[in-house]
Specification:
Length: 668
């Protein structure tokens, strides 16, 4: 074996270097500035430590802070390790488990010593200070490979039972690596890491909160303390993030939902929404808008059962791959006569549907279908249930009972690209009419666990890719990206990620090209050749679920909905009681014009009424007094604007009617 290896750089140039040379040494040969800026290396596209020796011919690129996504991943991973070291320094007897990076930071799960109880939020400043000391010490982060038995024995001897358990269950033959901080503290980790703790910015992180967690996410296991933090490349990024967090807190849909009396949640129905009249008005307006959109795009709306036999879910593949997320129901009358078991051992099982797709295939199979009948576009405002863990529930964003704006397109092979392209155009129109000008399109490719042949997946992925190209969305403007391993077990999918008013992204829309389910559920049509053929099934949604999308809308608009979606569009408020009769007549005219209007004739000062209806996010306040009653006018105050405009009542009604008209009807 030669002592020399060939390293090819991104510009195409190549270097012959001694085997065992590090990426940092190559960076130093190129220039001292690059060596100082380099954080890690990409070896044939894989992120690695910059100090890890190179052992074979390779393609090398150096990661700096300009490669923000990779740099943030490294920093956040290192912040998590520094957090764990700091906690063990301060609180001897604490066991470490694991701590990954997240979308905006990191967390680490700890098992506190038995005599001290869970960690508390008021201990975070102390832990932060210890983290800064570790960063200031600029401790080298060194990778080591350990033999399995020796590592398990070390963890066990040190009382790290969780780490010992984890190491023992890793696959035989898998390389077990640890990283040391300086000469002492270590953690089991695949890496990569920065060269030393001093590469982190001590002013670019903040610990945010403590919560409970379970070992491996299982409520049957030991309870742990999870410490969350946010980490960035520099102080400026952290400051900007904290401002976004503050703005997000103001926009929290749960807070605004209470203030506007839109909905509530309670323990008697975990993960299910109690819609109040005003909140359900938003729901109904959005649902009516979506019905017009799908009706205009050639969909036929259907309604399918909530409960289906387990055998159906077995046939579709969900029973084997999705059962842990399903609510299962015994198909027998429960025992009420004695103290015996409520359900017998011989009970047959059914399940609440977690999705609508198998039921739509059953509708497709009713009656013979011809190639002339395709594409067949089927839609359902389908109520579904998924057994989400209690700890994963979040307001109306993540619930157990939800309604999808679901749809399935059954089509021939030659129709797929055109149907997906048309869906992209429909989604684009809906998002923009709902106030989202910016969204990204991503193609989620085959996962490791999947049904179907490689040829089937090759074809499905290529079709979605071509459809996005033909829709003009495979561009930087649309954030086009391919995501290896992120597809569903039965199909690749396009994902559509919205960007809201404060820059957060939300994955909502999707379309999946599925050849597996029609095969498993025996869907077929008669082709032009007189033979049976399998249709391709395109699973698609635009909003995703009504519950989550309304939560996104609440936060996007901070409760200040566009007039057509606002639960109350106008309030007529009196200055004096003499104007009450005129106010009642004005409200009657507004309602007759199709405007959701209310009256406020309470014996309160007008400034109090203005403030109260502003807090309630009412788009328009029409103030009337004696003068307005005599002249047939109103003084209009618009939410979020100073001052008022005086105009005739008829003119005000015409203006509000235009604002109250949904955007799709305005464009006709």
């Amino acid at each position: 074996m030669s002592d020399m290896i060939r390293v090819t750089l991104p510009d195409g140039s190549a270097r012959e270097v001694v085997r065992g040379t590090t990426a940092l040494q190559i960076a130093a040969d190129i220039g001292p500035g690059l060596a100082k800026a380099a954080l890690a290396a990409k070896i044939d596209g894989e992120l690695r430590d910059i100090m890890r020796p190179l052992e074979e011919d390779t393609n090398l690129s150096l990661v700096t802070s300009r490669d923000e996504a990779d740099a943030l991943e490294l920093f956040r991973h290192d912040y998590a390790h520094v957090l764990a070291e700091a906690v063990q320094n301060l609180f001897p007897g604490t066991q470490i488990t694991f701590g990954p990076s997240t979308g905006d930071g990191f967390y680490y799960d700890f098992a506190p010593a038995a005599d001290r109880g869970p960690f508390r939020d008021d201990e975070l400043p102390l832990i932060e200070e210890e983290m800064r000391k570790i960063i200031a010490a600029d401790l080298p982060l060194t990778r080591e490979v350990w033999e399995r038995d020796k590592l398990i024995a070390k963890w066990a001897a040190e009382g790290e039972t969780f780490k010992a358990e984890w190491a023992a269950e890793l696959p035989q033959g898998e390389e077990l690596t640890v990283y040391r901080s300086g000469d002492g503290w270590m953690d089991m980790c695949r890496g990569p890491h920065l060269a030393s703790t001093g590469k982190l910015d001590p002013a670019a992180f903040k610990l945010t909160r403590v919560s409970g967690a379970y070992w491996r996410g299982d409520q049957k296991n030991a309870q742990l303390s999870r410490i969350y933090g946010t980490g960035w490349l520099n102080k400026k990024q952290l400051a900007e993030h904290l401002v976004r967090l503050e703005e997000a807190a103001k926009r929290d849909h749960r807070k605004i939902g209470r203030e506007m009396d839109l909905f509530h949640l309670q323990e008697e129905a975990h993960g299910s929404v109690f819609w109040h009249p005003k909140g359900y008005r938003i729901y109904r307006e959005l649902e009516a808008y979506m019905r017009r959109a799908i009706d205009g795009s050639g969909y036929q709306e259907v309604k399918t059962p909530q409960v289906m036999d387990a055998r159906q879910w077995e046939q579709s593949g969900h029973w084997g791959k999705y059962r842990e997320n399903m609510f299962v129901i015994p198909d027998e009358v429960p025992n009420i006569e004695d103290d015996g078991p409520i359900v017998s051992d011989g009970a047959e099982w059914m399940a609440l549907k977690p999705m609508n797709c198998p039921a739509h295939v059953l509708i497709f199979r009713q009656g013979m279908k011809s190639y002339r009948d395709l594409p067949l576009r089927m839609a359902e405002m389908g109520c579904c249930h998924r057994n989400e863990p209690h700890g994963a529930l979040h307001g109306i964003m993540r619930v157990r009972q939800f309604t999808q704006d679901d749809g399935h397109i059954f089509c021939r092979e030659d129709q797929i690209v055109e149907e997906v392209r048309d869906f992209c155009a429909l989604l684009d129109r809906v998002y923009k009419q709902l106030g989202f000008e910016k969204y990204a399109v991503k193609l989620a490719l085959r996962p490791d666990m999947r049904f179907g042949t490689e040829e089937m997946w090759d074809k499905a992925e290529a079709e979605l890719r071509e459809a996005v190209e033909r829709a003009g969305m495979a561009t930087e403007e649309y954030g086009w990206e391919e995501l290896p391993g992120e597809g569903a077990f039965y199909a690749p999918k396009l994902e559509f990620h919205l960007t809201d008013a404060i820059g957060r992204t939300w994955q909502c829309g999707t379309i999946q090209s599925d050849r597996v389910m029609p095969e498993r559920l025996d869907a077929s049509y008669i082709g032009e050749d007189g033979e049976r053929h399998r249709p391709v099934m395109l699973h698609r949604a635009i909003l995703g679920t009504y519950e989550r999308f309304i939560g996104i809308l609440i936060e996007h608009f901070a409760g200040r909905f566009p007039t057509w979606l606002a639960p109350v569009q106008a309030v007529v408020a009196t200055i004096v009681s003499d104007a009450d009769a005129y106010a009642k007549d004005a409200v009657a005219q507004l309602v007759a014009a199709g405007i959701r209007a209310e009256i406020d004739v309470r014996n309160e000062k007008i400034n109090y009424k203005v403030r109260e209806h502003s807090l309630a996010k009412v788009p328009y306040l029409l103030v009337v007094g004696n003068r307005e009653a005599e002249e047939g006018t109103v003084a209009i105050r618009t939410l979020g604007q100073d001052g008022q405009r005086i105009m005739p009542l008829a003119e005000a009604i015409a203006m509000l009617k235009g604002e109250a008209t949904p955007p799709d009807l305005r464009e006709r």
